[in-house]
Specification:
Length: 378
């Protein structure tokens, strides 16, 4: 178990890993204190189960060889549930590693549930119980303990075996194609970027009052701008519920702002409040609500039809021993119930194992019965 803190050793390791067909990658980071998660450790593993950790917080350490390795398209990069890892890498490189393999997506196709954890896969596949007690430590603090380093590196040393096993299972059952879309989702760069103008979409709130919604949108955008510029979490500026309260009861000036009840504004100074007041004023004067109309989807689907489709989905997932979420999500089910046809669950391999039955239900040519405790679709 090795912690690398010198640039020449980083280069030596990366040159060594260039000869691998695949490498295993993980990161440790802090996101509670920042808008942009702070990279605190990079773990790399080879195909044989060896692992190393690189300390990116060492002053003047050269990480270019690591980043070149990430972008080397001749080497497959194996991750487990890499959404947050990619957010960090994208903030640094403005790119996502390629090609990649996600063992969590593969586990969905091999009967390990919707979101199998790394430790559960290691336990199921390698029969090893990992010590995860160091998971919630502050990775920003130095020096790192041996326990922290061992924990971090173990996240890549077992990953090669997990990957090899899941790959073999998918090839054996002809399911490699089943996770292509799940893998390709990670290359949609919009999931790593929140445009301030779209920040309102992150908050669950809707009002039929268009002025309230315009104010809500403008305040959300101002908070996003402030959080980005100060590199602090959004809630450090202002919680979601406060944005909603301000949109419903917008203050006209600082005196009214400070007089609002039931709001914790200790993290907001007067300059921030003035920006919020300006955004409220912009929201009040805005006559354009196209952004709202374009984002409100009709919901004319019968709840009963949705529930029956869910039963069919679960039955199909059980039959093929895969995660239901790999076949269709809630939005897919709702769209099918509404009669839409351009849905991923109605195409390709998903159509064969679920979509065809779903369409027959909508057309009225399908029956569901229960026999000996099992759902029978005819």
């Amino acid at each position: 178990m090795t912690l690398i803190t010198q640039s020449d050793k980083v280069l030596k390791l990366c040159n060594l890993l260039k000869s691998e067909k695949f490498i295993c990658v993980d990161t440790e980071f802090i996101r509670e204190k920042y808008y942009y998660p702070k990279l605190c450790l990079i773990q790399l593993g080879d195909s044989k189960g060896n692992g190393w950790a690189i300390d990116p917080l060492v002053e003047n350490i050269d990480l270019l060889p690591v980043y070149e390795l990430f972008l080397n398209e001749k080497i497959l990069k194996v991750f487990h549930s890499p959404r947050q890892d990619f957010e960090i890498i994208f903030n640094i490189l403005n790119k996502i590693p390629k090609p990649i393999f996600d063992t969590q997506s593969a586990a969905m196709a091999c009967g390990y549930g919707d979101s199998a954890s790394y430790e559960s896969l290691v336990n199921n596949i390698k029969k090893i119980n990992l010590d995860k007690s160091a998971r919630f430590t502050d990775w920003q603090l130095r020096p790192l303990s041996k326990k922290q380093i061992d924990y971090a590196i173990s996240d890549v040393t077992h990953l090669s075996k997990v990957y090899s096993y899941l790959l073999e299972e998918m090839i054996k059952n002809n399911r490699l194609n089943w996770i292509k879309e799940e893998i390709n989702k990670f290359f949609d760069l919009t999931i790593y970027i929140t445009e301030p103008a779209n920040a309102w979409k992150r908050i669950k709130f809707y009002s039929s009052n268009k002025t309230t919604m315009s104010i809500f949108k403008e305040i959300s955008q101002t908070r996003e701008d402030l959080a980005k510029n100060l590199n602090v979490p959004r809630n450090k500026i202002m919680r979601d519920d406060i944005i909603i309260k301000l949109a419903k009861n917008p203050p006209k000036n600082l005196t009214e702002f400070d007089g609002l009840r039931g709001m914790n504004l200790r993290n907001m100074n007067n300059s921030h409040k003035i920006l919020i007041l300006k955004s409220i004023d912009i929201g009040k004067k805005s006559n354009n609500t196209d952004w709202l109309n374009n984002n409100i989807k009709s919901n004319n689907a019968s709840k009963a039809v949705i529930d029956i489709l869910k039963i069919i989905l679960l039955s199909c997932a059980e039959k093929y021993n895969i995660s239901p979420l790999l076949i269709a999500n809630k939005e897919d089910i709702k769209q099918i119930a509404q009669g839409e046809k351009d849905v991923k669950a109605l195409k390709g391999w998903r159509y064969e194992i679920f979509g065809s039955s779903a369409l027959k239900l909508i057309e009225g040519s399908l029956t569901i019965t229960v026999k000996e405790g099992a759902v029978i679709i005819e």
